[in-house]
Amino acid sequence: MTFRKYLVLAGVTVFAAAGDSMLSHGMKQTGAISIHHLQGIILALRNPFVALGILLLLAFFASYMNALSWADLTYVLPATSLGYVLLALVAKFALHEQVSLVRWLGIVLISGGVGFVAGGPALTSHGHEQSSTGAEALETVGASRGPEGPLFHERAGS
Amino acid sequence: MTHVYTWSGILVVVFFSVVGDILIARAMKQVGDVHALWERSGLWTVVGRVLSNSNFFFGLTAMAVGFFSLLFSLSWGDVSLVAPAAASLTFIGNAFAAKIFLHEKVDRRRWIAAALVAGGVALLAG
Fold it and tell me: What is the DSSP string of A114-138?
């Protein structure tokens, strides 16, 4: 794991929590959306908090896709665990929602559980999912052959 | 009744999020390490490789459905319940789906983590 990869995972965490918080604040301002009035969703997009929330979630998505290109899905998802703690703090102090002791315990348990994963290897899946067209396939096969290939080094270092 | 709406919304979010996550993860594994590809071939190669991947678009569609379901759910329930519950259940669903569809090695460490997360979700729902 390099510093750049830790930064990507930090981006996944912070952008997800901030985006969800902005969306929640914005949706509370626009009010409940009825199934019979779906146009309410479009109107909600005009709320600045909803719009900012969407921008932050786009930043999350870019970080998320970057991380998924070099790590397992079950490794990347725990990176959002610290986001739960951030969300609880934001919900408590910025949105003034009631966060009970039981919910705090639940959040701590979730964070502990997903944090448990972080100690393991980042990539465990096989390389057969790599691009399989033309020269890319040859490149992938060559890279997978031995310790000198970049794929081997990437897994060994992660 | 609001409680039923909230949890129904959470389950819909979870289903489409898992489908989206699996497809996007598969797409990005097919694209390869973005940073290495960017340094080797440039940004537009990365963008082109991602946009020409069909799994990416199917995954994006599933995530979009999950996203709008999340908007509904957030307007019905507290963010400190809806967001962590949906994300946690998505994590458990993803652990199963990643093992089956992505052939990831979900070892004891990751299963224990999934169990802890499930316990956390139970506490959140209580």
Answer: HHHHTTS-S--S-GGGS--SHHHHH
Our count of domains for chain B comes to: 1
Per the structure, the complete domain to which residue B32 belongs is given by 2-125
Which residues are CB-contacts of B112 (< 8 A; sequence separation ≥ 6)? A113, A116
- In angstroms, the Cα distances linking A120 to A13, A78, A115, B105 are 18, 11, 10, 11
Two tokens, residue A97: 């929602």
Q: What is the largest CA-CA distance in chain A?
A: 60
Helix intervals (H) in B1-126:
2-31, 34-41, 43-51, 54-76, 79-101, 108-125
> pLDDT tens for residues A68-123?
998 888 788 766 666 776 777 777 787 788 888 887 887 788 778 767 776 667 77
Mutation target for B interface from A20, A30, A77: give the one with most B CBs within 10 A.
A77
pLDDT single digits (tens) A110-129: 778 767 776 667 777 655 44
Residues of B in contact with A33 (CB under 8 A): 71-72, 75
Which of B24, B29, B120 minimises the CB distance to A125?
A: B29
Structure tokens at B22: 């699996």
The yes/no answer to whether this complex scores an ipTM above 0.90 is no
Provide the whole-model pTM. Answer: 0.71
Q: Contacts for B14-19 with beta carbons within 8 Å, 24 or more apart?
A: B14/B66, B14/B86, B14/B89, B14/B90, B14/B93, B15/B66, B15/B93, B16/B62, B16/B63, B16/B65, B16/B66, B16/B69, B17/B62, B17/B63, B17/B66, B17/B86, B17/B90, B17/B93, B18/B90, B18/B93, B18/B94, B18/B97, B19/B59, B19/B62
